[in-house]
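User: Can you help me understand a structure? I only have the sequence.
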Amino acid sequence: MRKQANILKGFWNQIIIWLPLFLIPILYAPHGHTSWKNDLSIYIIPLSMMAVAYINYFILAPMLLKGSKKEFWGINTLLIIFLSVIQHEWLYYISAEQNLMTYPYQIFAGNKYLYPHVFFIVRNIFNLSICAGVATSILMAQRWSKAEKEKREAETAMTKAELVNLRQQVNPHFLLNTMNNIYALTAFDTEKAQKAIIDLSKMLRHILYDNQQPYVCLKEEVEFLHNYVDLMMIRIPENVEIKRECNIPANCDIHVAPMIFISLLENAFKHGISPEHKNFIHIKLDANSENIVFSIQNSNCPKGEAKRNGHGIGLKQVERRLELAYPGKYKWEKGFDSNRNSTKIIIYDTKLYNH
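Assistant: Let's start by predicting it. Here is the structure, written out as tokens:
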């Protein structure tokens, strides 16, 4: 249906363009009975223009786009010169034969030093060249627009594929850390390990179902983060202070990219806790109709190179996902000193995904 509508629209656009060229000569045509030659002379100019325009649009311009420049210019030159001569011969001699010579012809007819043939043929060549140029430009613009559209569609498809790939990479990265924690927990507290497995099953449900969507309800994502913190609190030592604060509207219908914040939590628990001194992890999420703000502050506990293996992979994935899901609509603030690491992600795109 859309293709048929586009064809019909193009047809009417052509009618609007060509109709004035056929109507204007009729207004200046002589009244009364005239020969068929004179009747045909009224339309020879618009017919020639149409011929040049459509031959260029459907035949010659595609040749030019394929690289056949010599053929394009050669055939166009011969076509335009041929039709220009035909126009002149028909109009000039038919008008003289019937004593219907117009004002421009009368000027040349009375002056032997002027050459009407050359003047009118050059004029016709100029007019037909404009028609050829316009038709070629229209086709090239349409091809360029189509190519740009296909390019944008390809880029969108690649972006979606990359987002899916990044979301799939989050799962094993997250599961690896979590399973290592549960494994360590089974060595000294079986009951806590069992509770951890239950919490993990809730999180896996979120990963398997909700993570497949490009955007999920913020409430579901917050619940997922809470489950993760509960899971981590089972194994962390008593010298770690955990604070959680969540401020979202009661009837929150804000949506967010799934698992966009989990790597920040992993990083805080994995690299912000040391058994040697008191530690802290402060987590805060604020959301309203304008933005989502997720921030974490934790102790700065530098790790040796042996313990930093793989560190930073999850954060790089978060940054790439933010670029793809929220291009130009987010800010990531990072800071650290000798005692504290802090990170804050601000997303300025909440209304777009509200239902």
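Now, to help you interpret it: The chain is about 65% helix and 10% strand. Residues 21 and 46 are 6 Å apart (CA to CA). Let me know which part you'd like to focus on.
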